[in-house]
């Protein structure tokens, strides 16, 4: 937390973004499972949830695959394509 204390002194959003970037640059990277959960298995609880998605966001290719899947499932991508075609047809 002491690294984030420097954020308290920043007022302007542009300065805040630079300060936050500097903080993250010096922080060590940690893996959620191996650094947080595995060391204390006796304190970890798991329960089933519905309508929730868990994805490994630490790998760019995994992020992109999940993003594309979510766009397909939500129908958002199809809507964007349809609207783009409508605008192109109208403009021609």
Please describe what this structure looks like.
By secondary structure, the chain is mainly α. The chain has two domains: 1-39, no CATH class; 56-92. It contains four helices and no strands. The chain is flat and about 60 Å long.
Structure keywords:
mainly alpha; 92 residues; 4 helices
- Kindly state the number of beta strands: 0
The 3D shape can be described as flat
Q: Could you say which structural class the secondary elements and strand pairing correspond to? A: mainly alpha
Q: Into which percent range does the helicity of residues fall?
A: 55-70%
- Count the DSSP helices: 4
What is the radius of gyration? 21 Å
User: What are the secondary-structure elements, in order, as H or E?
Assistant: HHHH
- Biggest beta sheet summary: none
Please indicate the count of domains. 2
Q: Which stretches of 5+ consecutive residues score pLDDT under 50? A: none
Mean pLDDT: 79
Distance between the termini: 57 Å
Strand content: under 5%
